[in-house]
């Protein structure tokens, strides 16, 4: 049995499943407007949360190698 028709059927079934809407998207205006300052604070916290630990590890990589 050739592999290509099997892969083709799996791909078609995966595409069919993905056509259903995943989330409810509305076009209404927001209930509360977020100011630029609040957005800046949120982005800063997000970047520190994600990049802080990885930066710490990279900065102390030589210390970890010695242990």
Automatic annotation (TrEMBL):
Annotated keywords: Membrane, Mitochondrion, Mitochondrion inner membrane, Transit peptide, Transmembrane, Transmembrane helix
Subcellular location: Mitochondrion inner membrane
GO terms of biological process kind: mitochondrial electron transport, cytochrome c to oxygen
Annotated source species: Kryptolebias marmoratus
Chain ranges passing through the membrane: 40-59
Family annotation (InterPro entries): Cyt_c_oxidase_su8, Cyt_c_oxidase_su8_sf
GO cellular component: mitochondrial inner membrane; respiratory chain complex IV
Gene3D superfamilies to which the protein is assigned, alphabetical: Cytochrome c oxidase, subunit 8 (4.10.81.10)
A Pfam family assignment: COX8
Pathway given in the UniProt record: Energy metabolism; oxidative phosphorylation
Protein name: Uncharacterized protein
Superkingdom of this protein's organism: Eukaryota
Bilayer topology annotation: Single-pass membrane protein
Family of the protein in this entry: Belongs to the cytochrome c oxidase VIII family.
């Amino acid at each position: 049995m050739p592999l290509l028709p099997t892969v083709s059927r799996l791909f078609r079934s995966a595409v069919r499943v993905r056509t259903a809407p995943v989330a409810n998207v509305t076009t209404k205006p927001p209930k509360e407007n977020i100011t630029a300052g609040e957005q800046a604070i949120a982005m800063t916290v997000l970047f520190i949360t994600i990049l802080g630990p990885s930066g710490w590890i990279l900065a102390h990589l030589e210390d970890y190698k010695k242990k």
